[in-house]
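Quick one, T. Sequence first:
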Amino acid sequence: MTLAGVLVLGLLLVPLLRGRAVRPLARAVLASLGVRVRGRGPAVRPGSLLVANHVSWLDVVALLASAPVRPVAKREVRGWPGIGGLAGAAGAIFVDRSRPKSLPGTVAEVTAALRAGRSVAVFPEGTTFCGATRGAFRPAMFQAAVDAGAPVLPLAITYDSPAAAFVGDDTLWSSVRRVATLRGLTVTLAGGPALHPVADADRRMVARAAQASVGLTPAALDLAA
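Structure tokens:
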């Protein structure tokens, strides 16, 4: 089935099946693009905060295809054809980056999800990066794990082609077309040992430890909330 067919079918099924449709639909999206997912590391425990580096819009789809998680995504993703509906069906927590004052409310929403036993996936770099260039893990969302007493699972996302990257002035559709022409792209999700923040742990230190586990340079950590 083509990607367009998968997305149209998904738009019909997701409202009917809700969360149950998310994983099979995410897998169908990846299959239609010829993208393979390889997973390594510990299984995702319910109520975990997954923190990963960010390369592409494919990151979210690969995570949704691999584990029952609620992704944290920028508000604009809500309006993306197909992908926005998939994220919404998964219970995505949308962040409005134009309103910094809304961040505490977002952290509280993530905390509530973790306390309810839902796993949440966050990209603490805040945007996508390609190649050797990487961003720092911003510590704000780690406060949710501290407050909820939830484990933090660092996850390194890598692709076997730089064409998967979604950066700069790239558009969603140009990226989709580029990925579709590869027909054999592999994304690897490599989970590190879970971190278990103690009560009142410093979120900056937790972020630094997770960043080091993912393989990013901890010295570059942005200490701003």
